[in-house]
Design brief:
The protein is α/β, with parallel strands linked by helices. Helix content is 38%, strand content 15%. The strands form three sheets. A seven-stranded mixed sheet has the order 7-6-8-9-10-11-12. Strands 2-3-4 form a three-stranded antiparallel sheet, with no helix packed on it. Strands 1-5 form a two-stranded antiparallel ribbon. α6 packs across α7 (120-128), α8 (142-151) packs parallel to α9 (184-195) and α8 packs across α14. The protein is elongated and about 80 Å long. The termini are far apart.
Length: 381
């Protein structure tokens, strides 16, 4: 181990005996008291020295035996310490892969803050390469989500959609203007490969396989071009994901409203079937209207503000990455919405329905809410 202070955290002395690492309340940590000897040791923790060399230098500075080890333990518990050897190993493994470490260095710095253990960021970034994500939809939201996931180091991102690219599918972070007229799935695949920081990893014999022979899906992002299918998700289309235990996240834009969530964990959180049942209980006319919306004639160009679509795609990608990195985002069993023109985000938790065959209703609401960190308001419909 080559200890180093996390470079993503800015350092400032509050006074002669207290030093603060980090600026924002979410990350700021104050180390107090810090005597002159400890201050000198902090300057040595730059990742260029192993523990033995640090101990020798501390001894040359006439510091008490064990001072270095005590400081290392203290900084590790505070989440302020990283391991330079973990970063070096990742850089060495990727040196011949299109400059992966340089492109993903900001992502690695961010992950090191979210996962405070030394080397935690490197472990998560490396794990992303083994992940397979499927994005359903290649419009302004879906294609941008796919591009963001691929550019963030997700090893395999596939996009499913039909038809050909229309001029209104184009977005700065998604499909380019030259893709107009191409098959949507093909154009999105080219986009994903173009922005990827490295070629997809080679599958090993130990990699879990799906029915199609590829690595098992870690997540499906449902981002349809018609935002109705995200706002009122079809339980029949989600049946296979529920049956196979595949997590899926909804995102889209409908009539000037953007939405992210719910993230459905089959058997653990509310699914589209739960949402259908609860809405029907609150509004008996809801199923009749949904049937008309789904079967009625749709306009050729859906309402989808570019800024709102990009915002939704960014938030959906961030929630997806949080889940893939091992945490439960706030969209777990909940939906986040914002509408033009004020764009104030609001959230609503979707409670599992006891009569839904998905089985999530068997879990108590208290257990779910504490586990997922979901908001407390319940979606009524």
């Amino acid at each position: 181990m080559h200890p180093m202070m996390k470079p993503a955290l800015r350092r400032a002395w509050r006074d002669r005996q207290a030093v603060q690492f980090g600026v924002t309340p979410a990350q700021a940590v104050v180390l107090d008291p810090v005597d002159p000897a400890t201050g000198c040791l902090l300057d040595l923790l730059d990742g260029t020295r192993g523990l033995e060399l640090l101990r020798k230098e501390a001894h040359a500075m006439r510091l008490p035996d064990g001072q270095v080890d005590k400081l290392i333990v203290r900084l590790t518990r505070a989440g302020l310490l990283d391991d330079a050897t973990a970063d070096a190993a990742a850089a060495g493994a990727s040196r011949n892969r299109n400059g992966t470490p340089e492109r993903l260095r900001p992502d690695l710095a961010s992950l090191s803050l979210v996962h405070p253990e030394p080397g935690g960021g490197t472990v998560r970034l490396a794990a992303r390469r083994a992940v397979r994500v499927q994005v359903r939809g290649a419009g302004r939201v879906g294609a941008t989500v796919a591009a963001l996931l691929s550019a963030s180091g997700v090893g395999q991102v596939e996009v499913l959609d039909g038809g050909c690219v229309e001029p209104w599918d184009i977005a700065p972070g998604g499909l380019p203007a030259k893709a107009v007229g191409e098959r949507r799935a093909s154009a999105a695949g080219q986009l994903v490969r173009r922005v990827a920081p490295a070629p997809p990893p080679r599958a090993s014999a130990a990699t879990p396989r799906s029915a199609d022979g590829g690595p098992g899906l870690s997540l499906v992002v449902v981002a349809p071009r018609d935002g109705l299918d995200a706002y009122v998700p079809d339980s029949a289309r989600a049946a296979d994901w529920i049956a196979t235990g595949t997590p899926h996240l909804y995102a889209g834009v409908l009539e000037g409203t953007g939405m992210v969530g719910p993230l459905v964990l089959p058997g653990g959180t509310a699914c589209p079937g739960c949402l259908e049942l609860r809405r029907a209980e609150r509004d008996p006319g809801w199923p009749r209207m949904v049937a008309q919306w789904r079967s009625g004639r749709r306009g050729p160009v859906p309402a989808c503000d570019l800024g709102l679509a990009t915002t939704v795609a960014g938030l959906a990608a961030a929630h997806a990455l949080t889940f893939l990195d091992g945490e439960l985002p706030a969209s777990t069993g909940a939906r986040w919405e914002t509408s033009l023109p004020l764009l104030d985000w609001r959230s609503a938790r979707i409670a599992p329905h006891p009569d839904c065959p998905c089985g999530a209703g068997r879990h108590t609401e208290g257990e779910y809410a504490s586990g997922a960190g979901a908001p407390h308001d319940t979606m009524a419909g």
